[in-house]
Amino acid sequence: MISDFLKRATNSTNNGRLTVQQIVIICVLSLAVLLSPLYVSNYRLNLIIAILTSAYFAQCWNLMSGYTGQFSFGHAAFYGLGAYTSSILFVDLGINPWIGLVLGMIVAGLVAAGIGYLSFHYNLKGDYFALATMAFCEILRVLFKNTKALHASSGVSIPYSKSIALMQFGSKQGFLYAAFVMLAAITFALYKIRRTKMGLYFVAIRENEDAARALGINAFKYKMIALIASAMLSAIGGSFYAQYYLYIDPTIAFSNTVSVSAITPCIIGGAGTVFGPIIGAMILEPISEITNAALSNYIGMNMVVYGLILVIVIMVMPKGVIGLTKELVNKYDKKKAEE
Amino acid sequence: MNAFFQASIDGILMGGVYALAALGISLIFGVMRITNFAHGALITVGMYVTFELCILIGITPYIALPIVMIIMFIIGFLIQKIFLNPLMGVAGYNQLLLTQGLAIVIENLILVIFSANYKSVTIPGFDSAISLGALTINKPKLVAFIFVAAISIGIYILLEKTDLGRAIRATSVQPEGATLMGIEVPKINQIAFGLGIICAGVAGALLTPTQYIYPTSGNSYSLKCFVIAVFGGLGNIWGAIVAGLIIGVVESFSSLYMGGSWSELVVYLIFIMTLIIKPTGLLGKKG
Questions:
Q1: Minimum-distance CB partner of A300 among B87, B97, B112
Q2: CA B237/CA A193 separation, integer angstroms
Q3: Whole-prediction pTM value?
Q4: Taking CB atoms and an 8 Å cutoff, what residues of chain B touch A298?
Q5: pLDDT, block means (10 residues), chain A with 339 residues
Q6: Which residue of A118, A303, A307 is in closest CB contact with B276?
Q7: What are the φ/ψ torsions at residue B170 (nearest 5 degrees)?
Q8: What's the CA dihedral at A19, A22, A28, A33 to 10 degrees?
Q9: What is the ipTM of this complex?
Q10: How far apart are CA B154 and CA B62, in angstroms?
């Protein structure tokens, strides 16, 4: 019974459609989030918002690294550009953050196009590409840290307001619903893309780029599309972050920690799957929160746990929770068939 | 003109330490094709081990060096044995992510154990500088450079002239072939990782007299070491050393003429250029 349910819940070959079990899970979880202000304290809403935003950012990474196989280690670059563009334009020039958000997407998209052109045109792959993205992110950090016009290392503080017109959603609930919409939209988009020709090209490039090229797929073009789309979506996440926490500086925005935070939920849930990043965030964020509270006397202990989770997941279930579940169910079925 | 020569001296001396740390990255990549993201964290471990030895036994970092090397070798040997050997031959980015995970664990364990307080080591008689006319040479940096040279030569001899070195080189060229020749590849991998981590640890130890020790103090060297290892050609030991010296001098000159905070930028731009123009590096084979 349970194995049957899990099998259908992790099924990804149902002619491209969701199974009934998957739809039930999605509805239950969505309702749980949407109704959470009714049964969860205002303080605890932070955790749910953290799960949603972390899953959102991981989905952005999933698009280019999980689907298309171009492993980015510097996604903080795009996140930071989004956060900075909307914040600086608002604080210094009084431009509405909603417009800033769109401009931030454009800036991140342009920078991604530059990075992508240099990397893909010169055929950087694997670890070399990962190191290049990391270096580009560091370059941005140094630039922002040393440029007075960009507030240098003192960062940007955004004035608090309660107006949706200024992209601040009044209350925790407002931010919760905004984060939910963002996550739902990107997840739906990834689910749809997976079923299009372009989605198939992405996966073909990930699995075997040379073979994909031999079949006439313009790998350069599709890698560029994945990177630029992923960067623009990450920028939205960055703007959202800035509006929520009301402060950013170069070491927060362009840090390695942020880049890693895009990767970890995806790896834990299962990279290249539609729901992996959500499952990963649902596991990771509560554990972080619990260890943070329980071990608050030992500063750093929560990050030790975070790192250990990453290490253990890679060693025990390199295909994430979804991959492991599938494997276990298959094994169980085989055993049953033998009996 | 003095500033020019001074910057050259400082750059070469600093570049030596970079070179040693990068040599570790290059060695590990050369043998196992692992990009070790935990290298920076292990440089920090080297610093703390040195600091503790200095405090507990009351010796100087230079006398502590052999003990640091043994401890770092054991740490590297065990990391490869426990975490990386099971992943050898697994495709994709698992090794890279694993070392990133280990880096997070190591860095924060240090924070838990030693707190975020800055620590420093002073060596009596080594806090002054040697003056050569208008130029000054920082004593700990000069000593560090001499140690770097000695250890690099030691590793070169080990790799080129001993049976163990031949086994390591065979493994780096073709693990399957090496296995057929009766080489225990997993053990060789452990030794190679241990050697790479010795380089990180010694670099950390040699930095202790000239910089503060805190849980993330090795991190700033992490990406720089990748830059050097790639610039010299990943897997190429002489490349790492030459590139280390070049990057040291470039950094020193760019901070002289452009200001310290921009020197990082120059280093990363060199990196991007290398990746684009010749990803196999300065002394690497044709791309």
A1: B112
A2: 45
A3: 0.91
A4: 112
A5: 74 68 89 89 88 96 92 95 95 92 97 95 89 94 91 87 74 89 95 90 92 93 96 96 92 92 93 92 92 84 92 90 89 86
A6: A118
A7: -60, -45
A8: -130
A9: 0.90
A10: 17
